[in-house]
Design a protein that fits this description.
384 residues, alpha/beta, Aspartate Aminotransferase, domain 1, Aspartate Aminotransferase, domain 2, 2 domains, four-stranded antiparallel sheet, 15 helices, binds 4'-deoxy-4'-aminopyridoxal-5'-phosphate, binds glutamine
Length: 384
């Protein structure tokens, strides 16, 4: 019998570059600076609190919207950081990771033909998330090499079908961050065209050089239009936990939860119980920017011994580097070559563009032990 086939709803999509490069790193025993995750341990206190929660029986379904004491603690954290009151009952939903929060936000809003402004390079889940909902991603390239937003170009791409704008600050893969001038443009634009916002702020605590994180939650007019998505994986060095949350106004949250309840329904209970206690100590999150800035600076200083040229990174786990002054390879071939022959895995920046725009730039993840960074850079010094 002929085997059954389904027509792909995502015909252009293959396996994510993060999966491909991490697998190659493993196969070749390379040092993995490709996929973004820490190679150091998550906080012992959080492991202990989670173990205790399990021992004390917090092992059944959490409420659909999330463990209420955790949502209350998130509201407190948002108040401490951004001076905004958020209602834990009606405006916060705990999700299986930032990725699922983003998917749920798009799914709650988009109807076939709705257009969403997406800046490229873009985190790889946005466009497939939009397209599987019948939406259309309207791509706007960030300016190379500073990866700022050209607001004139954004305006030129707005049509009567534009429904949403997708933002990511601090930005993966470039490490660029939104500035006050961007916020001023954004405020005018969304008001004029009545747009909604999906704001991916999973790297809120990974911001450097004393720059403030300009969360949508700081601005009442932006917050009123936004689904703001966060990740405990990044904040607490446990990407494998896949736990995040979405903050949105009550009516948006009600629609968000209609999707969430029939997709995830609820998330891993012990971790939610543990985080509700862990986050009471503000230092647990206030200490994160300095930790990662130290990593960024240490990696940048080590990399001066190599031929790679850095592009600025003000946030996230990542730093982009140019290599095209010493190699003619395209960035995918270069990344594979580097992994196989030098034993250091990275991510080609072209993977973040639908049309494969290649500026001769690769992404390294510096969320690693100093020793890992030292060993990687030692290998990268040896390039003709
Ligand atoms: N957005 C961006 C920009 C990311 O880099 C990541 C990291 N995977 C996510 C969302 C997803 O976060 P999570 O692992 O919590 O799903
Ligand atoms: N956000 C991580 C990165 O950019 C990867 C997450 C994933 O593998 N999906 O490397």
């Amino acid at each position: 019998m002929e085997s059954l086939r389904i027509a792909s709803k995502l015909p252009k999509v293959g396996t994510t570059i993060f999966t491909v490069m991490s697998a190659l790193a493993q196969e070749t025993q390379a040092i993995n600076l490709s996929q973004g995750f820490p190679d150091f341990e998550m906080p012992e206190a959080l492991v202990r609190l989670t173990t205790e929660a399990m021992q004390q029986g917090a092992n059944q379904y959490a409420p659909m919207a999330g463990w209420l004491p955790l949502r209350a603690q998130i509201a407190q954290k948002i108040y401490n950081l951004y001076g905004t009151d958020v209602n834990p009952d009606t405006e916060i939903t705990i999700t299986p990771g930032g990725t699922c929060a983003i998917y749920t936000a798009f799914t709650a809003v988009l109807r076939p033909g709705d257009e969403v402004i997406v800046f490229e390079p873009a985190y790889d889940s946005y466009i497939p998330n939009i397209e599987i909902n019948g939406g259309v991603a309207v791509r706007v390239a960030l300016r190379f090499p500073d990866y700022g937003i050209d607001w004139q170009e954004v305006r030129s791409k707005i049509t009567s079908r534009t429904r949403m704008i997708a933002l990511n600050t601090p930005h993966n893969p470039t490490g660029s961050v939104l500035r006050e001038a961007d916020i001023a443009e954004l405020r005018k634009l969304v008001a004029e065209h009545d747009l909604l916002i999906m704001s991916d702020e999973v790297y809120e605590h990974l911001i450097f050089d004393d720059l403030p994180h300009l969360s949508m939650l700081r601005y009442p007019d932006l917050r009123a239009r936004a689904f703001v998505c966060f990740s405990f994986g990044k904040a607490c060095h446990c990407t494998g936990w896949k736990l995040g949350y979405c903050v949105a106004p009550p009516q948006f949250t009600a629609e968000f939860r209609k999707v969430h309840q029939f997709n995830a329904f609820s998330c891993f209970t012990p971790a939610q119980v543990a985080l509700a206690t862990y986050l009471k100590d503000e230092q647990t999150y206030r200490s994160v920017p300095a930790l990662y800035q130290q990593k960024r600076d240490y990696f940048a200083q080590l990399m001066t011994q190599t031929r790679f040229e850095p592009l600025p990174s003000h946030g996230s786990y990542f730093q982009l580097y140019r290599y095209n002054h010493f190699s003619d390879l395209n960035d995918r071939d270069f990344s594979i070559w580097l992994t196989k022959t030098k034993g250091v895995a990275c991510i080609p920046a072209s993977a973040f563009y639908q049309d494969g725009t290649d500026h001769g730039v690769v992404r390294f993840c510096f969320a690693k032990k100093n020793q890992t960074l030292e060993q990687a850079v030692e290998r990268l010094c040896d390039l003709e």
